[in-house]
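Narrative progress, year one. The postdoctoral researcher (J.K.) led the effort to move from monomer predictions toward full complexes, under supervision of the PI. The following entry was the first complex the group processed end to end, covering 1048 residues in total.
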Amino acid sequence: MIEGKILKVSGPLVIAEGMREADMFDVVRVGKNRLIGEIIEMHGDRASIEVYEETAGLGRGDVVVDTGVPLSVELGPGLLSNIYDGIQRPLEKLKEISGSNIARGVYAPALDREKIWHFETELNFGDRVQEGDILGIVKENDVIDHKIMLPPGLEGTIVDIHSGDYTVTDRIGKVKLPSGDIIDLTLIQRWPVRISRPYAEKMSPSVPMITGQRVIDALFPIAKGGTACVPGPFGSGKTVVQHQLAKWSDVDIVVYIGCGERGNEMTDVLLEFPELTDPKTGKSLMERTVLIANTSDMPVAAREASIYTGITIAEYYRDMGYSVAVIADSTSRWAEALREMSGRLEEMPGEEGYPAYLTSRLAQFYERAGNIVCLGSDERKGSLTAIGAVSPQGGDISEPVTQATLRIVKVFWGLDSSLAYRRHFPAINWLNSYSLYREKLEDWFCGNVSREWRELTARCIKILQVEDNLQEVVKLVGIDALSAEDRLTLEAARSVREDFLQQNAFEETDSFTQLDKQLLMMKLVFYYEDMAKAAVSNGADIEEVSALPSREEISRFKSVEYDRCREEYAAIKLRIKNELDMLAGASDERN
Amino acid sequence: MVREYRTIEEVAGPLMLVKQVEGVKYDELGEIELPTGEIRRCRVLEVDGRNVLVQLFESSAGLNLAKSKVRFLGHGAELAVSEDMLGRVFNGMGEPIDNGANIIPEKVLDINGSPINPAARYYPSEFIQTGISTIDGLNTLVRGQKLPIFSGSGLPHANLAAQIARQAKVRGKDEKFAVVFAAVGITFEEADFFISDFRKTGAIDRTVLFMNLASDPAIERITTPRMALTAAEYLAFDCDMHVLVIITDMTNYAEALREISAARKEVPGRAGYPGYLYTDLASMYERAGRKMGSEGSITLIPILSMPEDDKTHPIPDLTGYITEGQIILSRELYRKGYLPPVDVLPSLSRLKDKGIGKGKTREDHAGVMNQLFSSYARGKEAKELMIVLGEAALTPIDRLYAKFSDAFEEKYINQGFYENRSIEQTLDLGWELLSILPKSEMKRIKPEYVKKYWPAK
């Protein structure tokens, strides 16, 4: 075992000598508290070590021990419904060990060593297996079948394998490698977090990830296997958007990374998710969720690792053939952790003090998303969608982290504080947001929802743009200068904004909207617009048409339950028509 | 064993380099003995071989390289705590300055605290009634929340904070309550305002004061808020009290941090503040909250003045990213004479949704809140338009909205620093103002509540 001695301590950076034999990126244990750290630079026999815990109390001469392995995560049954810190320590376990505050140097294995899992296999003696092949199934919970796979890089012949009850470290069987060596198989495998897990082939995304969030699904959809970012100043509702995605996205697994954010937000997820049911499976949402929490009061170095820990766990489930979403809140805190370490290493800074490798690191992270064919002879398919929140300083998206992110991701949901002030939530600005998947996914929407989808969503985007132009005119010369038709366009655009795009995350029915209900909502707004324009051109009074009583019904349509929405839709349509006919009738009488 | 060193090599600004030391640890506390016998304190910022870089907590005036001695104490900065701290006044380093006896410690705590396990937090959801409509009705404060006040020079943030401290209560309960007040680099007058206000209401007996005034060393400001939070943690989590912590002014704290960072020649982030300002602020703000295994709570109200009223300045900006909302004061409202001048639209309480509604405040609270927000926003837009184009250019409905927003500012926001409104009064006032608008505009409120609460005329 390689042992060194501390030479220098400066915040989370420790320099130790006598480390010539150690490998780059090895995990080391520092000092008598055995704090966890990672070697990030080597100079002769001096290693620069990033320590993932508070370093107060360390001094010259304290011992540093090399563990000989890079920073890795444990992968196996028991990950789901769990909450981990940035270096995969189970927080519930830590609570038992050290109470409500996290003491330094505490350690517990990520996967429970005592829990018994039932392993079911169909393989037999003599079966040939290759990397990624499924050895058997463990029912991790009511929702997810955890597929135990042969770790990447291995192939051979099964010598021994049996169904039965095992802990994660028990031997479930043996495999004979081509070299003749026989190795044990367990339910657990390890993977270094900084290296992406291998797959057979990458494909272009083509299926949308349905989120039930109207502004996202209809205007700026994201594909399964795609990448998106949510930048916004504080108070614009980033976290609520992220939580909504974690709750309602139609994926099999969600990995939620709270990176340098508020402790209470993670607590909120912990308390709320078990209560919510997944509309797809009818089971608790927590059953499909893994939480990684590095709250802002936890050590900054572990923040840097938390993103990688999260995405590696996500890749593992992707490799089983599941669709997985990684939601990271917020990548800016991760970038700041990079900046802090870079500063301590006395590297030459790039823009705003961020290291020059910021862009490439971000790109590496997002590139781990994708639609893939998994390793293994059954050629199953999995997808990994990555969504990152960005917290630009002062809401100014010209800052380096946002700009570097925008160069990589395909979907941009720009949050706007002026919308948030008006309590328009989700405060996604419809004028500057975009989705590069929109065209690609239209075929899917038209085929699976309705042929009108393309036309209606395009009409939404267009009317909002027209509204913006008309508002300029109104600001200059007043509403009276507009033609009746333009005024109705403004009314309809307002209706699109208020009755369609606005969505209340805290109201039961409104929190998630099925695609066909979304379609009806759009149709209702445009039905009003078309009918109102026709009525006005037939002489109805513009004020009365704008103040049509049934418009209130349109605005309340979002809280109509899904089961009743078709009949309600028909009823409202009828009411609009009747009311407008009455107005037209009244104007006929006047003439 | 405590060793003494006479090997001070350099002193520059708040930093000092000591050579040839043995066994000194990172973040350890030290004492410097001047030739005159005076003792000053310092802490280790960096250990590099046998040299250590230390940060002075006080000024370096009179420090003599050859004759001064340094001792390292073998532990970090600590605070002796006990329930007897209530009613006492301490300086920024935690030493009593009210001529009273020294505290007999129940416990000695590291002032840096340690991170709270998110799996061991309770989500804050208990409504605190502050008696201020703009807070209770629109930006509800809950127990265990951290809600800063963003102010500017010349705005009455002190009055608002004092009003909250005076009026805040959880309804229907009578529990152990305490205030911890940290003055960070503020003037004597401002500090005196708080003290005499606490004295007037009798709250002083339930208050622990930490004073670092503008004339005290700037470097001490780094520890003052941490001292206060450590005391608050003891009172909340060991003595099961509900503690309200007021820290004013965080801008002075951040400036002290910048001073040290600059002296260490670190690569600066925005506006010269160190890149770790976020992490540093978070390590304090996150100490607010509720924890399992304890009845108590820490509710934190830091006050900070925004340079040039600029919300995008790094200090308010980073604070806003950590805290659970913000109360912003408006110069415009203040000039109009509306007190407390809470700028309603950009203010926010993130935890309000869990603290309001049936069983907590009243069933119609959420709807009324959203309706007031959006109506006021629309009214303000209409008024802007009116300034450009005149009243005639508005549609009849927008004219009503403009009228609403005036009435809202005059009655709802403007309540003065001494009126204590119950939540029912606040909600009823909201309904009264909303009734300026036609009933059909109440799109954010459930129809059954509109029916139930719409004021009869």
